[in-house]
Amino acid sequence: MSQVPIEAERKFYINDPESLPGGPEIYIQQWYLPKDAYSFDGKNLTISNLVTVSVEPGPWSIAMKKALSRDRPTVRIRVIDGVKAKLTIKGKTKNYARNEMEWPIDFNDAKALINSNDWPNVVKIRRNVISDNQTWEVDQFLGENEGLWLAEIEFSCTHAEFKTPSWVNHEVSKISELSSHQL
After folding, report:
1. pTM of the prediction?
2. Partners of 18 in the β-ladder
């Protein structure tokens, strides 16, 4: 675990959800943790004394410390299809890219944390759509954000070229209010 993974992505509104091609779908629930829900000692991130993930000293611990020191850090628990859970910490976005550190966590522990806390959350159905040999993640938001449809495309670098499909509308990558964390 020497190099910290980078997520480079662009985000767009969807023109007409009815015109979207089919693709595999997953049901996602995400809870966003407030600063008082976890602690980080430079090596271990502990959430409500129930879930702990560890990192070795070096790039990962430095990236975590930097991400967690932000005013509104992005720390989330994601449950996929009601059977799998992950903990994710994201760094600050710069030029469409940011550090993204992720760990699988025990589903029952995640469920216990979620059920015992009233953290902000987002619910969505994600469809993977292939267009011009590129995978787009299309999110149909449910609950409080019902009716919102966004498409994301991820890259290995910030300057990658891509072609937008006809069902993609204008770019909203830099509109922070449309990040799942803000929604």
Report:
1. 0.89
2. none
